[in-house]
Write a structure and sequence with these properties.
This protein is of the alpha/beta class. It contains 16 helices and eight strands. The protein has helices at residues 10-21, 33-42, 64-68, 80-90, 116-123, 140-144, 158-168, 181-203, 208-228, 239-250, 255-264, 269-274, 281-296, 301-311, 316-324, 334-337, and strands at 2-6, 25-29, 59-61, 73-76, 100-103, 131-135, 149-155, 173-178. The termini are far apart. Bound molecules: nicotinamide-adenine-dinucleotide and SN-glycerol-3-phosphate.
């Protein structure tokens, strides 16, 4: 089976490596030709996944037509703000016999408030039934080092989920399946907002009590919004939910947590982003989540404070004071007490 991985950042490179190591025919598409050439020459992605040797069999190109020629599965791993543009470049070159397209991107489109699978369905309607989503606690570097990892694949059709499970599953990369596409996508995107919050708390010098509180109340927020948007609430207790939330709120490898850490220590967002080569999806997702919450009239207090810090110049310490001075309330909302 031939597979195209679109996006040669850290996650695209790690997933392409995993699939190529399984003996599959894999082409990695990089947006920039100089990056594609460097990967080919060095057999390593020096910018986004340094120090990881890539298999000789892995093909790399910056030409979309070459990447998509004869493929049966497409893996989309560009940042969320580039997904629509990438699909527009790709759509006329997608082979008729494509069996599945899977999004490994974690984000929500800021302007439209759409999830990644919705963007795919909108740009390439013919693929709607064959869309899957790969998510869960998985730092690219650790996957590239073959550290035992568990993720989940969501698809509306069981045959698509099954195909993708078989495709990605390895002895160190365990793939579960679910049909809750909405829940898996929202969980994967919204955990990045909480990772920024957890980083801010750490940057301000708070301790593990604070982190645990943010993870737990963050999960309550994610679940609250997810429920209103049609997700299965149980998804948020799974790999794409709690699993990824814990990973990103505690893991030193998280770019989103790093952004928060530096904000909490007093750096400006502009300076932090200017110094980063990689994407921290949570910065954009905070704006999308804030807008979604307003549109749905859902209360997301942590997200709201992260939004005010990122986009309204609120001092992190002031945001914490405001968060803590909110009215005391019951832990469970009334609709969950009966569940
Ligand atoms: N890195 C991880 O550990 C990891 C794990 C799981 C999921 N993800 C998700 O995967 C997605 C990609 O992240 P990453 O970590 O691979 O990114 P990265 O920061 O390592 O690299 C970004 C890549 O996207 C390219 N890019 C930037 N803007 C683009 C655009 N407008 N159109 C097309 N390409 C563009 C860059 O050239 C680069 O190749 C994100 O949604 C991220 O949340 C990442
Ligand atoms: O480094 P982050 O914060 O983008 O997180 C990467 C992955 O989403 C972890 O599952």
């Amino acid at each position: 089976m031939k597979i195209a991985v679109l996006g040669a950042g850290s996650w695209g490179t790690a997933l392409a490596r995993l699939l190529a190591r399984k003996g599959l025919s894999v082409v990695l598409w990089a947006r920039r030709d100089n990056l594609a050439q460097e990967i080919i020459i060095r057999r390593e992605n020096p910018v986004y996944l340094p120090g990881i040797r890539l298999p000789e069999t892995l093909k790399v190109t910056a030409h979309m037509d070459q990447a998509l020629s004869g493929v049966e599965v497409i893996v989309l791993v560009v940042p969320s703000h580039g997904l629509r543009e990438t699909l527009r470049i790709a759509r006329d070159m997608i082979p008729k016999g494509l069996r599945a397209v899977v999004s490994a991107t974690k984000g929500i489109e800021t302007e439209t408030l759409k999830r990644m699978s919705q963007v795919i369905e909108e740009e390439v309607p013919d693929l709607a039934a064959r869309v899957g989503v790969l998510s869960g606690p998985s730092f690219a570097t650790e996957v590239a080092q073959e550290v035992p990892t568990a993720v989940t694949v969501a698809a509306h059709l069981p045959e698509v989920a099954g195909l993708l499970q078989e495709l990605f599953h390895t002895p160190f990369f365990r793939v579960y399946t679910t049909n809750d596409v909405v829940g898996v996508e929202l969980a994967g995107a919204l955990k990045n907002v909480m990772a920024i919050a957890a980083g801010i708390a750490e940057g301000l010098g708070f301790g593990t009590n604070t982190r645990a509180a943010l993870i737990t109340r963050g999960l309550a927020e994610i679940s609250r919004l997810g429920l209103v948007l049609g997700a299965n609430p149980l998804t948020f207790a799974g790999l794409a939910g709690l699993g990824d939330l814990v990973l990103t709120c505690t893991g030193t490898l998280s770019r989103n947590r790093q952004v928060g850490l530096r904000l909490g220590r007093g750096e400006s967002l502009e300076a932090i982003l200017a110094s980063m080569k990689m994407v921290a999806e949570g910065v954009r997702t905070t704006k999308a989540a804030y807008r979604l919450a307003k549109a749905q009239a859902v209360e997301l207090p942590i997200t709201e404070k992260v939004y005010e810090i990122l986009y309204q110049g609120k001092a992190p310490a002031q945001a914490v004071r405001e968060l803590l001075s909110r009215e005391p309330k019951p832990e469970m909302p009334h609709y969950m007490e009966t569940m």
